[in-house]
Structures are given as structure tokens and as C-alpha cells.
Amino acid sequence: MKTSQLSGFYKLSSKERLEIVRDFAGLNEEEIAALGNTGSLGKIADRMIENVVGAMPLPLGIAVNFMINGRDYLIPMAIEEPSVVAAASNAAKMARPKGGFQTSSTEPIMIGQIQVTNVPDSSSAQVALLEQKQSILDRANEKDPMLVKLGGGAKDLEVRVIDTAVGPMVIVHLLVNVKDAMGANAVNTMAEAVAPFIEHITGGNVNLRIISNLATYRLASARAVFGKEIIGGEEVVDGIISAYHFAKSDPYRCATHNKGIMNGIDAVVIATGNDFRAVEAGAHAYASIRGQYLPLTHWEKNETHDLVGTIELPLALGLVGGATAVHPTAKINIKILGVKTANELAEIIAAVGLAQNFAALRALATEGIQKGHMSLHARNVAIAAGAQGELIDKVVEILVKEKQVRIDRAKEVLNNLSLEKKA
Ligand code: NAD
Predict the structure, then answer these.
(1) pTM of the predicted model, to two decimals?
(2) pLDDT at 373 over 70
(3) 353 burial type by CB count under 10 A (0-12 exposed, 13-18 middle, 19+ buried)
(4) pLDDT digit string, tens, across residues 257-304
(5) Whose CA is nearest to atom 3 of ligand 1?
(6) Do residues 414 and 385 make contact, with C-beta atoms less than 8 angstroms apart?
(7) CA angle 390, 394, 397 (to 5 degrees)
């Protein structure tokens, strides 16, 4: 009888764990070798997360043509989805004639939340907390002299009272400038450190002490102008603006609009070893901040009837800490980008999100998404059907021509081609 109850699994070496998984799942030697290959991570993999058996590589592509604030960048993108890197590169090319992307960002301020319950008098507690602001900030900053030395640290305090189904709660926000870190560990440590003092001031009980992923004080934005002649005429400009208004008025479309943006954003976030769940959570929460789920981008026409796009979203990214400083490929990707601060990285990623959105909207508003997507998708289908070497391109050609990019058809085509070859 197989069991998944494996006490002490974490104490084993990755090789020993792999053997258990092999026996459990009936894996062959080839599969074991593929799973256990940690690539550029090598032995570090085993120290990054728990119960490691191997690594899960993703293709790494380089998006080209990006000019951001007058400087050229090569952008590493780690993603499994075909056509994203090509679309970003193409969009960046179309942005160049009008100056590429202009970006900006706010200071890297993250919010640490401290939840206080059973407060006898919420209003008095609010006043008392604000009176003690400097002492609270000092206690927080004692926990991270390094960050303070760099000019960061806890800078301000907000106090909110919220009503919930289980009674009112006092929510303290610790605003921390995290400089070049994503900041979760730094902020969580500070939030935990000030909790006893906050209980003392409020007379309540502190429950949660944790960073908020809705980083409304840590925003990055980008803007680009796409000349109407370059993108296919004023009809295309109008088509893209109409598509944008569709997303603005309909959450079903808006989810997909923002997904297209995140295709680009996540790919660079992952390539740089950053926390893509944190970025995703922040992006979608920010998209809903006005009480309605809205696009992260904005599209309009300027006085010369060219297309103007802007994007703004919270981007909590780090160059120090997290996996960025550990993962060997992430470190190389940071070098390729040539960024020196987390803000610069956030601005580049905002530009990529805007480029990705432009590419998707342009494709949708003109030929439809499938044309460009299909030949790339067909490659994966052909490989999944078992095509190798030169047969991959032959299968792709036939599938795309027939507009039947399906695995069953790919197998038939492959079979026919193999028979032809033998004959
Ligand atoms: P970290 O604690 O490893 O690094 C930050 C520390 O590095 C700072 O506190 C500072 O002391 C030091 N430092 C040195 N040079 C610095 C510089 N130039 N700028 C800023 N700090 C500098 O990492 P972190 O960024 O605090 O935490 C990131 C990790 O936390 C990620 O792995 C993330 O996945 C994880 N995490 C996320 C969440 C969440 O998003 N909700 C929750 C918990 C943990």
C-alpha cells in the first residue's frame, strides 16, 4: 500500500527523497535523472525550499528593442508561454520611433500591518498610537540598523479603525522604506518587534503582524507613444482604444486584459528571482482599489491621433534578499539588465507590462490573437506529439496551414510524414 505519510522526509538528502518518489510513482531512470537535474542551481536548490528533489526549469528568452528613459535594455524573460517574448520585442520596436518608454516610481515604501483586537476604546487608542509614533518607529528601526544606515527604515505610521463581523479592529500601518529589498522579511520583523508596545499603548491584543502586498506607496509607472503609421493606421489606434474601454467596463474582459500585462511582468519578475505571487496579489488588488476591477493600463489618442499608453501598479521587487541574491541565473539576469536599484528594476518591468498589453491589444484589434500565437503554439503541440529534429517544422507548417493545431492531428501528420520518409 502506497503512503504519502513520510515522517522525516525533510531530513533525507535530495537523492534519497528522489528514490522514494521514484518508488511511489514508478518513475524510470531517465525520468529520475531529468527531475534531479538542478541545472544552474546545483546544490543551492536544496537550501532554497524544503523537501527538494530537483528543479523545474523554464525557458529564458531575451526581449529586445527596449528603450527606456533614453537607455537601451535587453530584458530577460522566464516563461513557458510561447509568443510573449516575441510580442514584447515587437511592441518595444514600435515604441522606439516616438522615444520608447518613459518611466517613474515612488519611494520603495512597504506597509506592515499590525491587527489589534479587543481594544477598549478605539478612538483613544488611535490618538495614543499617533502620540507615540516616534517611539514605535524607533523600536522598529532598532531591528534593522543596516536598512537605516542605507537611508531606509520605518518612516511613518497610519492608524485605521475597521468594522468587521467580529467587532471593531485597530489596524496599525508601519510604513517602511525598504530601499533595494522586496521587504517582506524586513517589514515582518519590524511589525513583530513593535507588537508588544502597541498592545501596551492600546490595551488590546495584537493578532497578525505581516506585510501588505497591496503596496500602494510603492508604485511604478510607464508611458509610451505609438505612432499611428507604425502600428497600422488610425483604425488600429481606435481598435485598441475600444478594446481598452471594453476592459474598463467589463470584468470578464478586464481579467484577460490584465493577464496579458502580467505575462510580461511575471516573466521578468521570475527571471530576476523575485516573488511573483507578491506582485500578482498587489497588481490585482490595486486594479480593484476603486471598488471595481479595472485595467492596470490606460489608452488614449493624442492631438496627432497617435496612441498613448500608460501603466501604473505596485511593484515590490528586490535586488538584495529573497532568491534574487541566491539564484545564480537571477544574478546573471540582473547583470544583463544592468539595474542598480530596485526602483529601476520596477520601472523596467512596468514598461514591459505596458509593451505586452500593447502587443496583445494590437493583435486582438487587428488579425486576432491566434495568428501569431498559433505557429508558436504549434511547435509545442508538434513536440508533444513526438516530432523531433526537422520533422518539428514540417508538422508545424501543416498544422498552421490547416488551422488545426491539435495534438491528435499532429500525431496523424507526424505518422504520415514518417511513413513518407520510410517509403
Ligand atoms: P531579506 O530580509 O533577505 O533582505 C532585506 C534585508 O537586507 C534588509 O532588511 C537589510 O537589512 C539588508 N540590506 C542590505 N542591503 C540592502 C539594500 N541596498 N536595500 C535594502 N536592504 C538591504 O529580504 P526581504 O526583501 O525583506 O524579504 C523578501 C522575501 O520575503 C522574499 O523571498 C519573499 O518571497 C518573502 N516573503 C514574502 C511575503 C509576502 O509577500 N507576503 C511574506 C513573507 C516572506
Answers:
(1) 0.90
(2) no
(3) buried
(4) 999 999 999 999 999 999 999 999 999 999 999 999 999 999 999 999
(5) 321
(6) yes
(7) 140
Of 179, 284, 327, 373, which is the active-site residue?
373
CA of 319 to the centre of ligand 1 (A): 9
Per the annotation, the verdict on 284 as an active-site residue is no
pLDDT digits (tens, 9 = 90+) for 120-150: 999 999 999 999 999 999 999 999 999 999 9
Distance 184 CA to ligand 1 centre (A): 5
Q: Is there a contact between 141 and 174 (Cβ–Cβ < 8 Å)?
A: no
For ligand 1, which residues put their CB under 6 angstroms from it? Answer: 144, 146-147, 150, 152, 178-186, 188, 211, 213, 275, 278, 318, 320-323
Closest CA to 103 of 311, 381, 320, 395: 311
Q: Which of 133, 259, 301, 411 is catalytic?
A: 259
Contacts of 258 (CB under 8 A, 6+ apart): 247, 283, 284, 287, 295, 296
Report which protein residue has its CA nearest ligand 1's atom 4.
321
Q: How many residues does the chain have?
A: 423
421, pLDDT greater than 90: no
Per the annotation, the verdict on 275 as an active-site residue is: yes
- With CA atoms as reference, report the closest residue to 356 among 227, 259, 242, 241: 259
For residue 173, report the distance from its CA to the centre of ligand 1, in Å: 18
